[in-house]
Automatic annotation (TrEMBL):
Binding locations of S-methyl-5'-thioadenosine: Q37, D112, D143, G144, P169
Complex and partners: Homodimer or homotetramer.
SUPFAM superfamilies: S-adenosyl-L-methionine-dependent methyltransferases
Similarity comment text for this entry: Belongs to the spermidine/spermine synthase family.
Protein name: Polyamine aminopropyltransferase
Organism from which the protein derives: Vreelandella azerica
Length: 288
C-alpha cells in the first residue's frame, strides 16, 4: 500500500486534472460541519497548521503569505488613494491583515458567510488575526452576494473577492451579475480583485471567462497576476484585477519602492513581473 494512503497524510485530489497534493499531518485539531461547509484544521509536520474547507486546502502557516500579499497589495498599490476597502470571503483574516498595513486605508469591511472560519483562525492561526482589533476593521458574517447587492452605488475604493472555489457558497461570486454589481458599488477609479484559480489548469476556462465577464460588467481594464502557491492545485495561483475607469496595468511604483511594510513576497519587481503574462497564458486567454 502507498504510504500516502495511511492516515498520516492529508491528501487533496484534483481528479479533473489527474493530480493531488499531500501534507504529512501529525494531528487533527478541528472537525466542524458548519451551516455552509466542512471545516478541518490539521497540524502538519512541515507546513505548520493547515485549514481545509470541503476537502480543499485553504491555507497553511508556512505559505499563506504568498496568497495574502498578492491578493491585497497589487490592488491597493494600483488604486491611487485606497481609503474604503471591502473584502468578500477572507474569513481567515490574512487578507484583512495585509490591507490594514496601508496607512491610507480608513475603513475595511470583511464579509464572510461563515463565522466558523474566523473562529478557527482565532484558535489555530493567531498570526493572521492579530490586526483584527484595529479600529478601522469591521467583521460581518453574511452572504457576500447579498451584501454587494444592497451596498450603496460608488461607495468603495477597493473590492477584494477572497473566496473559495466557484462551487457551493462561492458559486455566485463568479457570476456576471455579481461582477456588474461590484462595478456599480466601486467609485470611479476603483479597483476590484478576485482570486482566479490556477494559471496552468484554468487559463483557458475560469480565468478567461472571468476576464471576459469583468469587461462585460463594464470594467475598462483587466490584468491577471500569477504567483507561486505550493499548496494549491498545480502549485501556482492567480488573482485578476479589474479597474473602473482606470488602468490596472500600471501601479504606484514609487510607493511600492518606498513602503516599509514587513512583506515576504510582494515587491516592485514581483508586481512588474506578474503583469507580464507568459506566452502560454496569453494563448489560452485568447489574447496573443
Ligand atoms: N485562499 C483561499 C482559496 O483561494 O482557496 C480562500 C480563503 S477564505 C478561507 C475563503 C472564504 O470564502 C471562506 O471562509 C468562505 O466561508 C468564504 N465564502 C464562500 N462563499 C462566500 C459568500 N458567498 N459570501 C461570503 N463569503 C464566502
Amino acid at each position: 500500500m502507498s504510504p500516502l494512503a495511511d492516515n498520516q497524510w492529508f491528501t487533496e485530489v484534483f481528479d479533473r486534472h489527474g493530480s493531488a497534493f499531500s501534507l504529512k499531518v501529525s494531528e487533527k485539531l478541528l472537525d466542524v460541519q458548519s451551516a455552509y461547509q466542512h471545516l478541518e484544521v490539521y497540524a502538519t509536520e512541515t507546513f505548520g497548521n493547515l485549514m481545509v474547507l470541503d476537502g480543499c486546502v485553504m491555507l497553511t502557516d508556512r505559505d499563506n503569505f504568498l496568497y495574502h500579499e498578492m491578493i491585497a497589495h497589487p490592488a491597493l498599490f494600483t488604486h491611487q488613494q485606497p481609503e474604503r476597502v471591502v473584502i468578500i470571503g477572507g474569513g481567515d483574516c490574512g487578507t484583512l491583515k495585509e490591507v490594514l498595513r496601508h496607512p491610507s486605508v480608513q475603513h475595511v469591511t470583511q464579509i464572510d458567510i461563515d463565522e466558523e472560519v474566523t473562529k478557527a483562525a482565532e484558535r489555530f492561526f493567531p498570526a493572521l488575526v492579530d490586526a483584527n482589533d484595529d479600529p478601522r476593521a469591521e467583521l460581518l458574517f453574511a452572504d457576500g452576494v447579498k451584501w454587494v447587492d444592497e451596498a450603496e452605488d460608488e461607495s468603495i475604493d477597493v473590492l477584494i473577492i477572497d473566496s473559495t472555489d466557484p462551487v457551493g457558497p462561492a458559486e455566485g461570486l463568479f457570476k456576471t451579475e455579481f461582477l456588474t454589481r461590484c462595478h456599480r458599488i466601486l467609485k470611479p477609479g476603483g479597483v476590484m480583485v478576485q482570486q482566479s484559480e490556477s494559471p496552468l489548469y484554468h487559463s483557458g476556462s475560469i480565468i478567461r471567462e472571468l476576464r471576459r465577464d469583468m469587461r462585460e460588467a463594464g470594467f475598462s481594464s483587466v490584468a491577471t497576476l500569477p504567483f507561486p502557491q505550493p499548496v494549491y492545485p498545480s502549485g501556482w495561483w492567480s488573482v485578476t484585477l479589474a479597474g473602473k475607469q482606470c488602468s490596472v496595468e500600471s501601479f504606484r511604483e514609487e510607493a511600492v519602492a518606498e513602503h516599509t511594510m514587513p512583506l515576504q513576497y510582494y515587491t516592485l519587481a514581483a508586481h512588474r513581473g506578474a503583469l507580464t503574462l507568459p506566452p502560454f497564458m496569453r494563448q489560452a486567454l485568447d489574447e496573443t
